[in-house]
Amino acid sequence: MAVRIRMKRFGGKNRPQWRIVVSDAKMPRDGRFIEEIGYYDALPKEDIFVVKQDRFDYWVKRGAQVSAAVKSLVRREKKKAKG
Question: What is the CATH number of domain 3-82?
Answer without folding.
Answer: 3.30.1320.10
